Amino acid sequence: MKLLVSLLLWINFASTPDLASIRKIYPDVAKSEANAKEFIDKLAGISNNDEKILVAYKAASILVDSKFEKKIGEKIERFKEGAKLLEATIKSDPSNIEMRMIRLSIQEDVPAITGYKKNIKEDKKFITAHYAAHTGALKEYLKDFVLQSKSFSEKEKQFVK
Question: What is the pTM of this model?
Fold first, then answer.
């Protein structure tokens, strides 16, 4: 029995992606359908009860995947599913700067027709105000995002330099 429990725990731990690997591949997920599918597969084992930042990335994977759906009905359903999950995750921890960055990255790339662009100014302001409080890998990750972001002007990007 102990062996079975140990094996199940090991399988669960082994299937949970680490945040560093997720951050590494996230910037390129929307560039191709293959990248999007790889990202979705990597996050497939994440449930709504897992670490909130991983749930936010799972929501982003669903949103990006909707871009590549062939049928319009499925595209809309996947988009709504991803947006609802991302919003619920951010609502559970509104002070999480990385989740705000994820939402901003999604909202700056979706077509205006989706209506999912309402938080761009709010998230930019939040990231700008709270960036300096972070250190290490997260701060570098945020810096890389801001420098390539379409939402920040060159003048606005000065806070990360």
Answer: 0.89
Name the token pair of 154.
């060159």
How many Cα neighbours within 13 Å face the side chain of 159? 18
- Residue 124's identity, in one-letter code, is K
Give the C-alpha separation, 17 to 89, whole Å.
Answer: 18
pLDDT in tens, 3-36: 443 444 444 444 678 999 999 999 999 999 999 9
Distances (CA, A) of 155 to 9, 152, 159: 49, 8, 9
Q: What is the distance between the alpha carbons of residues 12 and 129, in angstroms, rounded to a whole number?
A: 37
Residue 57, amino acid: Y
Could you read off the pLDDT of 73-126 as tens digits, one per residue? 999 999 999 999 999 999 999 999 999 999 999 999 999 999 999 999 999 999
Q: What gap in Å lies between CA 80 and CA 129, rounded to an integer?
A: 29
**Per-domain residue ranges of the chain:** 18-160
SS (H, E, C) 80-116: HHHHHHHHHHHHHCCCCHHHHHHHHHHHCCCCHHHCC
